[in-house]
């Protein structure tokens, strides 16, 4: 048995030795007991990247990853995101607005997003502005300025915190459209500001902008050049091709920037299942959400289209692209204490990661980073534990009890202040190793793209 195992190990190593340049991750996934020193060394590459692809699982702490893994592929299985060669942890804390030298240990997606997008810590609710409310440039804006193509993809509203931090700067995350500026007077177009998140996103003009949030693009611009037009009309005047369903997205040629508005609010959930109770639930399996709007693309469809378009647009150019892809409703279903909703979104996010890793295989000069913005409430627990629990039957045909215990079931479950996983492969990926700070990711991506 041992001899067989070591022979197999040598064979695997030999295979790896011939292909490792393009596929640095193969030796690290699920090959138990293998000496990984050589493969890890091979995975460490400095230099610049042609492309950077950042995948954010919103609220996807270690617990959310483990829950999805157990359910979908079993405790000893591996998700696509588990196969990245280099893994570290990073701290996610925000800072207090009135005392920015002091941490706010539990961050929201706005402060954490501003952190990885700009390299600066800020307060909860801030969209790429400092605690003093001054805007700071984002990795997407810097990449665009340097001649890279850019993309921003989410299953949430495009005006939600994670996609918003890349292409807009407002003092409150609530200022999603021209009619929602109550808490952002300083940013309001009427007062000479740059406008709402929706307006600023189409002004920043990433080449690919895909997600929900159509209601805010339908609002009317109140001042300036586009006064009286909707934000969608402003986008079209700026050259955007606007699509509203999967067929439209598939048909878009990508010769113009693409704005996908696939839902009024957030996009629909992939899965449904039992609601946790104080006394637990009977063991159950998750089911596909039959109420999901069939014309909405899945996250993997949006990711594939973004990759195709950006790759095509940069074929003949010296510079590649920066692309952010968010699995947004992992967080939202954690808030809702909906285990199957949360797992379905994590699995859909993992499908997008798989697609990106396939792209990286043929484009090894691409830095891929998979991480989260903050931890969340769900925990794998013994049955009959305090809190609201539901029991699911996993891929292992075993019962897994999940607890939500940061709020009453009638309220919203809350984020946690834990560090989270950050995994990467490609040029500069070694900079995620060890324990880093969320703001370090900005500098890793900036260095990878050779930006100043
Ligand atoms: Zn949240």
Q: Which cofactors or ions or other ligands sit in this model?
A: zinc ion
Strand line-up of the largest beta sheet: 7-8-6-5-11-1-12-16-2-17
Structural class: alpha/beta
Instruction: Please tally the helical runs, counting DSSP H or I stretches of 4 or more residues.
Output: 14
Distance between the termini: 54 Å
In total, the number of strands is 17
Low-confidence stretches: 1-29
Quick recap of the structure?
By secondary structure, the chain is α/β, with parallel strands linked by helices. The chain has helices spanning 2-19, 37-43, 62-72, 109-118, 139-145, 161-167, 197-204, 214-217, 231-237, 246-251, 299-314, 329-335, 339-362, 438-448, and strands at 51-57, 86-91, 94-95, 103-104, 149-157, 208-212, 241-243, 258-261, 271-272, 287-288, 321-327, 366-372, 379-381, 388-393, 399-404, 420-425, 434-437. Its EC number is 3.1.3.1.
């Amino acid at each position: 048995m041992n001899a067989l195992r070591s022979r197999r190990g040598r064979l695997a190593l030999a295979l790896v030795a011939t292909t490792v340049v393009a596929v640095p991750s193969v030796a690290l996934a699920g090959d138990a007991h293998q000496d990984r020193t050589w493969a890890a060394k091979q995975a460490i590459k400095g230099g610049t990247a042609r492309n950077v692809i950042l995948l954010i699982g919103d609220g996807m702490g270690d617990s959310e990853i483990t829950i999805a893994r157990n359910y979908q592929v079993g405790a000893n299985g591996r998700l696509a995101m588990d196969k990245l060669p280099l893994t570290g942890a990073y701290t996610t804390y925000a800072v207090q607005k009135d005392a920015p030298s002091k941490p706010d240990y539990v961050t929201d997606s706005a402060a954490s997003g501003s952190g990885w997008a700009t390299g600066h810590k800020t307060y909860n609710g801030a969209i790429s502005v400092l605690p003093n409310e001054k805007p700071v440039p984002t990795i997407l804006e810097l990449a665009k300025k340097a001649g890279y193509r850019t993309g921003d993809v989410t299953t949430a509203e495009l005006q939600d915190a994670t996609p918003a931090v890349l292409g807009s700067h407002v003092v409150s995350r609530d200022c999603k459209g021209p009619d929602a500026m109550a808490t952002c007077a300083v940013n309001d177009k009427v007062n000479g500001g740059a406008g709402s998140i929706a307006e600023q996103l189409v002004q920043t003009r990433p080449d690919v902008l895909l997600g929900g949030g159509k209601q805010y693009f339908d609002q009317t611009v109140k001042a300036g050049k586009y006064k009286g037009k909707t934000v969608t009309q402003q986008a079209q005047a700026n050259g955007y091709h606007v699509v509203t369903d999967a067929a439209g997205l598939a048909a878009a040629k990508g010769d113009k920037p693409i704005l996908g508005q696939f839902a009024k609010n957030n996009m629909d959930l992939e899965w449904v299942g039992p609601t946790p109770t104080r006394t637990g639930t009977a063991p159950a399996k998750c089911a596909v959400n039959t109420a999901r709007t069939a014309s909405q693309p899945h996250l993997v469809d949006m990711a594939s289209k973004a990759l195709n378009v950006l790759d095509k647009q940069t074929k003949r150019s010296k510079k590649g692209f920066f692309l952010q892809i968010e699995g947004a409703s992992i967080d939202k279903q954690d808030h809702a204490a909906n285990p199957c909703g949360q797992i379905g979104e994590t699995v859909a996010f993992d499908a997008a990661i798989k697609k990106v890793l396939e792209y990286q295989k043929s484009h090894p000069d691409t830095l891929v980073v998979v991480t989260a913005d903050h931890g969340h409430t769900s925990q794998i627990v013994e049955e009959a534990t305090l809190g609201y629990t539901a029991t699911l039957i996993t891929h292992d045909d075993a019962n897994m009890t999940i607890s939500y215990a940061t709020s009453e079931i009638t309220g919203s479950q809350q984020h946690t202040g834990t560090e989270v996983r950050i995994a990467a492969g490609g040029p500069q990926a070694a900079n995620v190793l060890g324990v880093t700070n969320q703001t370090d990711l900005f500098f890793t991506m900036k260095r990878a793209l050779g930006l100043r």
